[in-house]
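Much of what follows relies on a compact textual record of a protein's fold. Think of the row as the fold of the chain written in a discrete alphabet. An example makes this concrete, so a full record is given next.


***
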Amino acid sequence: MIAIDSMMVCLDLSDIDEKLVAFTRSICGRLQVGKVYFVHNIKVYELSEDFREWFGDVDLAGEVEGNIHDIVSEQFGNAADYEVLVSEEPNTEVILADLVKRYKVKLTLLGKKTSIKSTGALGTKLLHILPCSVLVFPETATFKIEKVLVPIDFSDTSVHALRLSKNLSDQLGLQLEILHVYRLPTQYFPLISEEKAVRKAEEIVKGRFAALQKKHLEISGVPYTLVRAAGKSTAERIRLHLDKGKYDLLVLGLKGNNPLPSLSFGGVPKEIYNMDMHIPLWLVYSEEVIR
């Protein structure tokens, strides 16, 4: 059973905040969540001189906290125990990473605006530094989650994400599917038949799936699809498959191969994060990686 002891929700005082708080309520209604921390950091040094001249020594942190409490009261209610945390630090990423460690946060909910409205630079920094799994909620996403896609590359990281997704799907009655994107050694064409190469590649991958299912019996009944990259990146193929299959959640495992200063975020997850997605993206670290 999946339970979240503590969860952090990052708010930025924009229109997406109400959606994030309401989505958090939806999560608490479906999963066991111990405590939720609604957080915002005020970069005081970014306040203009005009602001200081007009408002003087106003208790900005108190005003922001009151505003967040209003949103939480309206959109979240008493769905779970919660606390509002407002800080005034120059570096948002560092203070949020510190909160994750201090309160042993297992999952952070992060909103994402479309590329027209935002560069997503802060989100990218947070994904590099936060020592916990992250659920990215695009402003165009809905709360309905019924169909889940988990791309895997047979690494321990992706297998962890798959097993976690299977647990989640069983718990909530979701439809789970697996995707694997493979590539052919095109430098050897036309020395070998492309058709023969495809057949051989899929034969090898199916053998790896059979071995994986034998090792982890709980995923033996999960359907999988093999897709050839064929001139596109793995992330692009995943995106095309998402649009075709009408999924509601994408789950990706993250690797932790960079112990200093934090964990590792790159490659396929980074490319997908930078796309304008319309469904939530769950980026999963295993407990072993975080430790």
